[in-house]
Amino acid sequence: MATIIDYLEHEFATFEEVPFNPVDSLILSEFCMVRMEGVLEPSETGVRSGVFGRISERFFPAKHAQFRDALRAEFYDDMFTGLVPSKVKELALALAASPRFRDVVVTRYASVFDGDGPVQFAAYSFTYKDLFTYVGFRGTDTSFAGWREDFDMAYMQSVPAQEYAARYLEDVAPYVPGALIVGGHSKGGNLAIYAAANASDKVLSRIERVYCHDGPGFRRDVFSKEQVERTAPLVHKTVPQDSVVGMLMETRAAYRVVHSDAKGIMQHDPFSWQVDGRDFVYDACLSDGALFMDRVFDEWLSRYSDNELRVIVDALFEVFEASGTTNLSELFSGGAKMVGGLMDAARTASGKTRGVLTGAAATLSEVVFKNVGGDLSQIFRRGVSGVLRPRAEE
């Protein structure tokens, strides 16, 4: 089957000939993982997280570029991020060669990073003539700040990147043409929904669609009933069949299940998603493993107050830092060496930190045992990974 790279290499129709579709959205949301500081000077960098009001002061005017302008080898060492940076580089090359995307203008690049905040945020506006503007938000990169924001969503009403996203959409809308399409992958999808839900009536009236590609949900108290009702019809959410990230917390909008040729957590990689013609290949439902993990995490999180979750996250990141890794995505990619190093670091952590994590792990084990139904025989028979995969393989 085809991937988004294959789609770029074979789809030659213009947007006048074939309307914007979900595959186009995933492609642009993944280009948001390209750091274009050397090509487009970002509108804001290195600021502290409490200056949301100042961000618009430096948005405009902004430089414009096309995808071919990103292809400067002198910037390659720092340009590509994400789960698979080499694939992001391949995507940038394919976009530059694509007749469909050749006339898309990349503009209004904004980037905010503060390791102490923590905040990791970046956004682009992709305009196509006067037809539409795609407002894309970057997902989580490999930084501690990026991953910390993701974890903070479990107990905070909002995180800095969400506030930046809402501000960016509101500020950029008057300066870009056409209908607005908003989207992102992973945390970027969460930011897209948050920005649309908090948009003014004037901006919301221009939003044609909000794409969330395997982005986490929200706490139940983040949005009002009115915000949910006016935003939910616009949301097009896609998750892979073994989705973990996209099923975290509450998802108010309906979602469609995309077929991925990867396994487990690596299905979060958008380059594994399968494409048929001008749309994704869809599955009928989530795998047993994804439904199992959804139940487990929902129940586990519900057992803690916001303050307790903050303590757990603080302890977890103390261990992450002690592990010595500079790339947190490696910790979640299933590498046995990194997992072993993390476990060693936890054992040597301070008494308080070790106690917090031991207690959280014990509660998680209890929830897992309960949801397995007390029958551990299937774990021994199939292995842990087998429990978390579709049973259709048997």
**Biggest sheet descriptor:** 9 strands, mixed
Uncertain segments: 44-61, 334-339, 374-394
CATH T-level topology of the largest domain: Rossmann fold
Q: State the share of residues found in helices, binned by percent.
A: 25-40%
How many separate helices? 15
Distance from first to last alpha carbon: 23 Å
Q: Give me the oligomer status.
A: single chain
| Strand tally | 11
Could you tell me the radius of gyration in angstroms? Answer: 21 Å
Order of helices and strands: HHEHHEEEHHEHHEHEEEEEHHHHHH
Q: What is the CATH class designation of the largest domain?
A: Alpha Beta
Which architecture of the largest domain does the CATH hierarchy give at level 2?
3-Layer(aba) Sandwich
* Strand-pairing-aware structural class: alpha/beta
Shape: globular
Strand content: 5-15%
Describe the strand arrangement of the main beta sheet, using strand numbers.
1-2-3-4-5-6-7-8-11
Mean pLDDT across all residues, rounded? Answer: 83
- Tally of separate domains: 2
